[in-house]
Amino acid sequence: GWMTTAIGYAKDIFGSLAVLEFVWSGAQYALRKNDLPDFITSAFLKMLSLSFFFFVLIDMAPTFIPDIINSFITIGANIGGVPMISVDSPGTFVSLGISMVVQMFNGLGKLSLGNEIGAIFPVALAALFIFIAFIIIAAQLLIILIESYIVLGAGAVMLGFLGSRWTNTFGEKYYGYAVSIGIKLMVIELVAGLGMKMAG
Asked: Residue 157's closest CA among 3, 1, 31?
């Protein structure tokens, strides 16, 4: 919901900056006294770039931003060689940690009584570290998801700054931030996959 409202504001900002951009460019061409074909070509190119920014980067942002993030998650799952872990719930990682701890203690039952007693402390210590590691991954995932929902949802207003050459870096950084969130989630996917393999 935040993104829809923010994009409404972004369109208003974009329109204002685009008008200023046209006025400034028109005044420059009028003062330079360039010939008409140059002015028409420049105006056409300016309209083309602003149309691209408006109809593709701003209008399609609610579609593009989740696609960017999900593509990095899929890449992480494929590189890690594990099924894609649902990042909708950080509890997935906690439950994975619990299942690994249970498997470790179940493995103790297969040992003879003398070996089982000697292995209890190392297994309990390893199980504790594994469980803590998965809780840390879940906490990291939770922080990244909260950050992404807040910044990507409300931050869509920054796309309005694509309307002028002086402010378009703010809009570009918004897409750059979406890529960085995707990379963070990809790394969590890789670490989770590696942890699952190593713990197994």
From this structure: 3
